[in-house]
């Protein structure tokens, strides 16, 4: 819904949408895709299932709204210009989000369903684009364009593997070493 359309919507409908998406996002982040049901979202938001179904007819609609909220509320610190320090800060933040579990649950549900529906693939791309935006900006200020995407993939992949697959902490020492290795591969 565009901004001009949003301005024409009854404030009660706006409040309902906000409350339901907030409840759906909290549930999605805390318990994952399978827990995200119309009944549970309605219960947590304080609305009827019929109201939730009226605005979000499928579970995928609820997930899409949650992913949109997650991406729309993600904040990144402003780069300082110190390439290594900025990368380490962003990667430690990413590792923290993974370690807390909510990002792992969100990504896990999307990964599990990848290729099953174009909307899921769109969400996967949206999550990656939002999650990597700050790393891309940091690297773009210091590296040739053709080096940016491979470095983003190596950096995010290294942290993702460490935390989500190896179940090990991405300590500052680990992240600093990863940054040095990736930047060395890019000639920095």
From TrEMBL:
InterPro entries the UniProt entry points to: Homeodomain-like_sf (IPR009057), HTH-type_TetR-like_transc_reg (IPR050109), HTH_TetR (IPR001647), Tet_transcr_reg_TetR-rel_C_sf (IPR036271), TetR_C (IPR011075)
Alphabetically ordered keywords of this record: DNA-binding, Transcription, Transcription regulation
Keyword Transcription: yes
Pfam families documented for this protein: TetR_C_11, TetR_N
Signal peptide: none
Stretches assigned to the HTH tetR-type domain: 14-74
Keyword DNA-binding tagged: yes
PROSITE patterns registered for this protein in UniProt: HTH_TETR_2
Location of the DNA-binding region in this protein: 37-56
Gene3D superfamilies cross-referenced by the UniProt entry: Tetracycline Repressor, domain 2
Protein name stated in the entry: TetR/AcrR family transcriptional regulator
